[in-house]
């Protein structure tokens, strides 16, 4: 068993002002995405300025934050937020949905593309390799908050979380950091280094995120207010990932079929 590192969720307190690690992780994810996007900006579109890129990152970040919060409210705990709507604003306590954030990003991307003459999938293919930076940072934030821990386990790296009772558990946040953050970043960054048919990078993102998240859900404790939805093991996270996996496969197949079709450019 490994000791859980007791890290104060508040990174910095100045009088009544408190800066939480959870919020800082979002800033790290957004800043890291901007830096890496700027490295590929010329290959994406030589006519784009850093200012236009900053606008894109800003609106995508808004989609992540607003979509992630609203997605959690709708998918995971609607009754609690209907009973006390002010809880929606307590984002420092956690409660963000990746799938809600993804919908927010898609809407922001569609709107931004319409304004700047880019197709939805052109922008999504550009954005997809950047997303794992924020995902990985967010999972570190979950770990510091001692939330979203895994099932009771006797593996040597199990930890006793201060909010998870006296028994050691899987550090499932770190599994997700390794898979959704590190592994997914390496896969997408390597794959997107060469020209790919439009939609293929987006498809790879959807496929591998869905697979990684589906796998980790087997050792992660579901939200208490939902529990398991079916078969004694199916979680809301897995239900939401199934369409991602199938949609990712479909996008990849369509992308390469379009590329090989006569008279069709990738």
Search tags:
two-stranded antiparallel sheet, 9 helices, 60% helix, 266 residues, 2 strands, globular, mainly alpha
Describe how the helices and strands are arranged.
Blueprint: E1 10-14, E2 17-20, H1 21-44, H2 50-76, H3 78-83, H4 98-116, H5 120-127, H6 131-144, H7 172-191, H8 200-216, H9 236-260
Antiparallel strand pairs: 1-2
Helix pairs in contact: 1-2, 1-6, 2-4, 6-7, 7-8, 8-9
EC number: 2.5.1.145
Binding site for a 1,2-diacyl-sn-glycero-3-phospho-(1'-sn-glycerol): 139
Protein name: Phosphatidylglycerol--prolipoprotein diacylglyceryl transferase
Textual characterization of the structure:
The protein is mostly helical and 266 residues long. The protein has one domain (18-260). Helix content is 60%, strand content 3%. The chain has nine helices and two strands; from the N terminus they run E-E-H-H-H-H-H-H-H-H-H. It has helices at residues 21-44, 50-76, 78-83, 98-116, 120-127, 131-144, 172-191, 200-216, 236-260; strands at residues 10-14, 17-20. It has a two-stranded antiparallel ribbon. A hairpin with a 2-residue loop joins strand 1 (10-14) and strand 2. The longest helix is centred in the N-terminal third of the chain and has 27 residues, at 50-76. The termini are far apart. One of its GO terms (molecular function) is transferase activity. Keywords: Cell membrane, Membrane, Transferase, Transmembrane, Transmembrane helix.
């Amino acid at each position: 068993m490994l000791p859980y590192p007791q890290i104060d969720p508040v990174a910095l307190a100045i009088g009544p002002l408190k800066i939480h690690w959870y919020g800082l992780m979002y800033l790290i994810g957004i800043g890291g995405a901007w830096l890496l996007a700027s490295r590929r900006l010329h290959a994406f579109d030589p006519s784009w300025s850093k200012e236009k890129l900053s606008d894109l990152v800003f609106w995508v970040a808004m989609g992540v934050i607003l979509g992630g919060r609203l997605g959690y409210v709708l998918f995971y705990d609607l009754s609690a937020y209907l009973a006390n709507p002010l809880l929606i604003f307590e984002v420092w306590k956690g409660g963000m949905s990746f799938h809600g954030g993804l919908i927010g990003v898609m809407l922001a991307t569609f709107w931004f593309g319409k304004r700047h003459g880019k197709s939805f999938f052109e922008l999504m293919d550009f954005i997809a390799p950047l997303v794992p930076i924020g995902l990985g940072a967010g999972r570190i934030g979950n770990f510091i908050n001692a939330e979203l821990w895994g099932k009771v386990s006797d593996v040597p790296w199990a930890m006793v979380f201060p909010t998870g009772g006296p028994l050691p558990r899987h550090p499932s946040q770190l599994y997700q950091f390794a898979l959704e953050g590190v592994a997914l970043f390496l896969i997408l960054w390597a794959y997107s280094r060469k020209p790919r048919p439009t939609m293929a990078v987006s498809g790879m993102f959807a496929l591998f995120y869905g697979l990684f998240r589906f796998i980790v859900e087997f050792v992660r404790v579901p939200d208490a207010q939902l529990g398991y939805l079916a078969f004694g093991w199916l979680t809301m996270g897995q239900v939401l990932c199934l369409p991602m996996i199938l949609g990712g496969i479909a996008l990849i197949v369509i992308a390469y079929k379009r590329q090989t079709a006569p008279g069709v450019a990738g």
